[in-house]
Amino acid sequence: MNRVLPILILLLGAAAAQAQSTPFDMSGERPKGEPPVTPRIFAPQTTTPQAEPPKTTLPPAATPSAVTPRVNPPVAITPQTAIPQTVAPQVTPPVVPVQAPPQAAPKVQQIASATPELRRFVVPYSKLRLEGEIDHKSWSIYLTPEQAAAPAKFNFSYQNAVVVAPEASQLTVLLNDRIVHQQQIGSSDNPSDVNFDIPRGLLQPGSNLLTFEASQRHRTDCDIQSTYELWSDIDPTKTFLTFAGREAEKLSTTDAIRAIGIDEAGKTQFNLVVPALAQPGTTKPMLRLAQGLSLLAGMPNETFSFSPDALPPPGPGKMTVAVGTPAELQPLFAVPASAQNGALATFATDPRSGQQLLLISGPSWQAISSAIDMVVSPTDRDPNTQRDLLVTQRWTAPDAPFLYSGTSLSFEQLGVKTTEFSGRRFHTSFNVAIPSDFYANAYGEATVLLDAAYAKDVRPGSHIDVYVNGNIATTKPITATGGGILKQLPIRITMRHFKPGLNTVTLEVMLLADEDSACVPATTSSTTPRFALFDTSQFRIPDFARVGQRPNLAAFAGTGYPYNRDAEATALFIDRIDADMLSTTATLLGQMALVAGHSIAIEPIASPSAVGSRNAIFIGSISQLPSTILSQMNIAATSQVAWRSPTPGQGTTQDASVTIADWRTRISGGVVQGQLDRFQEWMHRNFDISLSSLRFMPGSEQVFAPSNANTFLIAQAANPTKDATWTVITAPSAGDLRTGVDAMTSQVNWPQISGHITLYSAKTGKIDTVPVNRFDFVLSGPWSLTNYRLIAANWLSSNILSYAFLLVIGSLLLGIATANILSKIGRRE
């Protein structure tokens, strides 16, 4: 017993020592969701507050919240002061990795911002969409030698329709006809940003051709209608070139004006700073400079802004032009001393803002005019010189060739390449230009001589459609089975849809096949060609009548007619000379010069009475224009008071004098008018005859009063002596006038100007036209019997009753002459 008791005491002491060496665990009381803490044994004698635990003891995803759970100290630590000494090192280490990234981030940003880059937006539209199964857009970008030599990157962002099949659809970017990027189209949920390096040596000083191509197939459907659901949008605000280095920003010669480019919305703006703007002698050289700058840049959406006393901030697609003598510019810019001795036109850097600007200066305004001539003289051209091309390459390439009487061009010359197509709806387009004295809208046919082939599985019901300026012109059915080769197949196009200036001809082929009816999944993206178009196809335009018409706003918008052919200076009346009105006038004249192909000589006049027998342009708010000018345009004189742009919140008032009798007349008139409209549609559909053509002579122009819903008006008419053309550009106020000119000179709206009067609404963006009823002929060339015959043919085709009357008279005269001849010959009894 005495031996057992010591052994028992020894065993109990060992058990107690073992229990004290194991930490106390409260894991059962730990809040739910906290990670378990692995208990450890601490040695108080080896742990100090400055000691940092090894990094290997931290969890891989350590965060402050994950390292600060409530942990009870081990029971082996008996001194109370040991608890903070051992716990503190466990809490402080996570602070180090959390603080490190914020310290490193600024260093990375500083390194990135240390490399200068020049950004050039490249899409000359506010919206760019590639539609259908096959589509492409091409235009040129002008680069300076410094930009072409600099390392460059290209960036664009796109998003496509959800029905586009990525495995069978491709987006291709070409630069100077070389593929620089190609990828599957697969960004339907969110826009995708794409960027890549441009191969060195590919860019060249001057024009560089940029092309976006899309080949798209539907995910599920195989019919032609489903092809209209296919699209890919390119975001202009995220499509740009970037050039590395400071040299790319350098503008060394005035030729760099061509490289002004565009902003993220596809617009180009020239900011002219002219301290002597209010002086009458500065108006003419400033408007000549504006036209020259417009021609040098050649961009589709150009605007001009004048300022007398401030340098505007720089930006993409903007160029500041400072014009004045050194004394005039001294408060704004330090002019080089060489400007005191002679004319100066050069790029200079403003030491205050660091921006580069075009400086035009000299000791006098006569010297400044000489400097302006040095800048814009490359754009001068004799108005009587026949043009071969209408320059359009900055927004659609290639340039449109002018087609005169009896011209034939191959598709290769028109920029259409040989193409094989495996889809269901093929379409391609080309541009042609028509001279301003075109007069063949009522007779004659152009012809497409088509070289093409279609596969044997293409079935009857397929057809070839031709559109001119978005209007269907003709349809050619495919009736043969088993495939076929089309060799110079003539497709005739009525010429009523052509107009002076730029015209777009679109060829669209609808292809039906038996496999599309079954629509097996593999056939939605078949690569077997169904159709081939060859570049040996031709577009031929016949001889057509050439005579100018007055008025003709379509020719005004297409080629600047008649001011593009004016041998003497055009009279220009502006209701007042200030920065706002000169900005409006410069924007309009810049667009006219762009379509005319040269600067238009103008002569500012102070009074309409000084016009004489010259062609003239009148610009101003309607209340400031003389009533005689408005009456000559057949615009109601009451419009000077009644035409007002609607104010915000202004509503329309109901006429209290409306009666039941008025409504009875409206209803009965509406029924008759509806029947008459249906008859006109039937006549036009079956016999291609409109009610307006059933006339002996053109009707007279009616007095027109613009609605308050319209905020801008452009009208054209002959002068009182019928030997010149007057054009009026007006609006209810000066603000509406500038807004209207900026909107109507855009690449989208300018081609819609036509007729006798064109109106625009800034609130809705709607454009309305008043057609020409009566016009005068203006001879544009030497006398020719053939041309007169064509003029008569078109006039009689427009006035059918006169043609019928002349035909009856001619038949009667022929019968009388025949009877007279027969009465004198033969044997008589």
Describe the structure in your own words:
The protein has 829 residues and is of the alpha+beta class. Helix content is 25%, strand content 26%. A seven-stranded mixed beta sheet has the order 32-31-33-35-34-36-37. The longest helix has 28 residues, at 660-687.
Number of DSSP-assigned strands: 38
| Structure annotation, total helices | 17
The gyration radius over C-alpha positions equals 39 Å
Low-confidence stretches: 12-114, 651-656
Mean pLDDT: 83
Proportion of strand residues: 25-35%
Using the alpha-carbon principal axes, give the shape. Answer: globular
Q: N-to-C terminal Cα separation, in Å?
A: 185 Å
The percent range for helix content is 10-25%
Instruction: Characterize the main sheet.
Output: 7 strands, mixed
Helix- and strand-based class? alpha+beta
Spatial sequence of strands, sheet with the most strands: 32-31-33-35-34-36-37
